[in-house]
Amino acid sequence: MSVSVSVTLRARTRSCARRVVRFLGRALVRCRRAAARQGAEAWGQLWEGLRPVDPYRSVKAALGWLVIVSVVITTLLALFAVQSATELRVITIISIVASLLITQFVAQSLTAPLDEMSSVAKAMAGGDYSRRVRGERRDEFGELAANFNRMAADLEAVDQHRKELVANVSHELRTPIAALRAVLENVVDGVSDADPETMRTALSQTERLGRLVDHLLDLSRLDNGVVPLGSRRFEVWPYLAGVLKEANMSKGSGHSRKDVHLHLDVSPPELRAYADPERLHQVVANLIDNAVKHSPQHGRVTVRARPGAAAEGDGSLEMEVLDEGPGIPESERDRVFDRFNGTHSTESATGRKGGGISPGGGTGLGLAIARWAVELHGGRIRVAESPRGCRIQLTLPGTSQPQV
User: Fold this and answer.
1) H-state helical runs in 126-235
2) Which residues on neighbouring strands pair with residue 269, listed in sequence order?
């Protein structure tokens, strides 16, 4: 019996010892990490504090060291002249020449980045935004070069967007205008009669032109920031039912399709929201239009609305638009809301290619305008995970946040 108790005590003692050792080891590791982190922070602060006297990281320090070196050289030459009985004028000439050479070397190294920036700026003035300045320095000129390169990249992006705008709008205008012209020429030449079917074809092209003009006007308002909100409380079910009814009525017009079924899911049925009905209509219509365009044959588009996660009764709203298409690759989900993204997609209307989202007749403005309208409410819109198709989710805060 005593042997069994002794064995048990020894086993427990070894177990406790191992636990203490592990605990002390983990504590030692944490102490080492904390000490290393504090040492790195202290070294970083010291390194940053030495910057004003570092000639490689400060132009002021470089100029200061230039003056110090020139004075030291002159002093040493003067002492040498006193000890060697050399004429003072010879020493003066030597010191002046040495100071000029050192000054020229330092000045050349300081002005070289400015010369390069001047050359790049002239190229940018001529329309070449692809050139950049080398940012190898660590001083103020290096920071200036980095900021200059960021500015050049922004200007290049703006110039690219401008070119895309001209190309996209020209393409979108040319297609309906050419179709409308062909219809009217056939009517004038007697090739076809001005029957309802012909007039519907002409009307669909006119509506497509109208959508493009509306999107461009909204884009102008977006840039100018002159669109106020007319928020009010309304019932979600009849409101979204009206939006879906309009979408059903527009099937077959323009690029809309007749084979896609629209489904509305609002819970609870008496759900109320606080938002600008006109802007929200714009968002939902664009999302439905985009989902219908990229749905498979005889597919289904679901519009789902639920109360927001904020306080009950504040009018917050969470909404989703789901389709059964191929979906959007994860790498493209942050870009689908950019302007002109996915323009001139080579796929058919039943598929997406990368960011091939081109709502509103292919201009790539529909989702950008949807994001603008949601953010105008203080809300958020994103592409959410979905086991099938694409799921775009938007959240409106209701009255829990101040309206813009």
Assistant:
1) 140-188, 196-224
2) none
